[in-house]
Design goal:
Oligomer: single chain
Number of domains: 1
Structural class: mainly alpha
Number of strands: 0
Shape: elongated
Largest sheet: none
Radius of gyration: 20 Å
Order of helices and strands: HHHH
Strand content: under 5%
Helix content: over 70%
Distance between the termini: 62 Å
Length: 130
């Protein structure tokens, strides 16, 4: 049975290892950041501004995604494209750069909300100051 052309072309690069690892790490980090920040924000503000805060958080995530993509593209340009590396190496660099940005965001998110109350007893109407 003949292997697909893509497998033959990149058989020595193991690009699936980079794709799987970076996808799992990035998706986990962004999910944890979103859940943590949205829970903290929504338990910290009065009821009449909760929808505003949710919209601001979604907007921040959308803008952040564009900025992260621009940083990853610029990094890949400098590290790989200008040096003439192959396309598989360029993808690996871009994916790991995005993963590093997501990991950095996760660390910042955890440090920023570690002392905020997000349990059931913290939802009694008192707002938590930032």
């Amino acid at each position: 049975m003949r292997q697909p052309e893509a497998v033959e072309k990149y058989a020595d690069n193991h690009s699936w290892v980079n794709t799987l690892a970076t996808s799992l790490i990035s998706i986990t980090a962004v999910s944890l950041i979103f859940v943590t920040t949205s829970t903290t924000i929504l338990t910290s503000v009065p009821v009449d501004v909760k929808s505003l805060c949710g919209g601001m958080l979604n907007t921040a995530f959308q803008i952040g995604s564009g900025v992260a993509l621009a940083i990853s593209a610029a990094t890949t340009e400098v590290v790989d494209i200008e040096k003439g590396h192959d396309i598989a190496q360029q993808y690996a660099t871009g994916l790991w750069c995005s993963t590093g940005i997501a990991g950095l965001g996760l660390i910042i998110g955890i440090l920023a909300v570690r002392r905020k109350g997000i349990g059931p007893n913290d939802r009694m109407g008192e707002s938590v100051t930032f």
